[in-house]
Structures are given as C-alpha cells and as structure tokens.
Amino acid sequence: PAFCVTLGVILNISLIIAEPNPVNNAIASSRNTTSVTLSWNKPLDSKPEYTYKVTLNGHLPIMITGNEFVTVAQLNPGTGYTFSVFTLAADNTSAHPVNVSSTTGKDTNCFNRSFSLTKVDCLICSKSYNQVFVVDSRMW
After folding, report:
1. What is the pLDDT of residues 14-57, one digit of tens each?
2. In this structure, are residues 42 and 85 in contact, taking their beta carbons and an 8 Å threshold?
3. In the 3-class helix/strand/coil scheme, how is the chain assigned residue by residue?
4. Would the pLDDT of 114 be above 60?
5. Which residue in 8, 43, 46, 108 could disulfide with 21, CB within 3.0 to 4.6 Å?
6. Which of these, 82, 102, 87, lies nearest to 28 by C-alpha position?
7. Are 29 and 39 in contact (CB under 8 A)?
8. Exposure string over 43-70, b if 16+ CB within 10 A, otherwise e
9. How far apart are alpha carbons 17 and 121 in whole angstroms?
C-alpha cells in the first residue's frame, strides 16, 4: 500500500518597521508674542509615508504631514516653551524627539490691547506705568 503524506507549512510573516531617524536642524524659525514657528529638515532616511508629531511641553500633539514646519499659536506672551518634534513611521513607530526651546516675545504695548487688562498683563510689559487700573470693578 502506498501512503500519501501532506505536510502543512505555517508561515508567520510579520512586517517589521524600523524606528525612523529623528528630524534634523529643528529650530524656532520665528516667534512673536503669542506664537512660535518651528521648522526642521526631514530625516536622512525620509520616506513618503513619514509624518511628524509636535508636542508642546510634553502635551498637545499636533499631527503634521508633508510639511517641515508648524506654527503653534495662542501662547502666552513672555513665556518659555519646549517643543518636541518626532518622526513617525507608517505604523506610528516614533523616532526619538528633537527638542526646541523658545520664549514668546514680551507684550510691550499693554494699552493697545483689548480692555481685559489685568495687573499681570502689565507686569510682563517692558515699560512701567504709574497708572491705576480698574478691572472688573477692582482697583489695582
């Protein structure tokens, strides 16, 4: 009698995506009193599917695709921030962050702002004023 043996082969193929390289030359390319613009160069091994994640002081992720810059707005005047820029592979594998620190400009023109001035607003101005402010019916 003849025997017929069927061999089953199970292949376990998994797609391994290597950690991407970090961005290059990340800088705060411009700033004003309430925003900072960051720019960077693509990693040397850049691939079309790479995206970039920017975090502000370790929070507030902003997804950026295809651009090597981002403007972070609605920041406080005269305040220091640390931004981190991550390269992300297609499966969200992240490169090590590149950190950029920047300080927004000080508000030097308190009197031209809307009438929501507070004592703190004018303390951050570079000018000193000998004025009395009435805010919310309180004297400062």
Report:
1. 556 679 999 999 999 999 999 999 999 999 889 999 999 999 99
2. no
3. CCCCCCCCCCCCCCCCCCCCCCCEEEEEEEECCCCEEEEEECCCCCCCCCEEEEEECCEEEEEEECCCEEEECCCCCCCEEEEEEEEECCCCCECCCEEEEEECCCCCCHHHCCCCCCHHHHHCCCCCCCCCCEECCEEC
4. no
5. 43
6. 102
7. yes
8. beeeeeebbbbbbeeeeeeeebeeebeb
9. 49
CA pair distance 122, 107, nearest whole angstrom:
8
Residue 73 tokens read as: 């707005």
Q: Encoding tokens for residue 105?
A: 């400009």
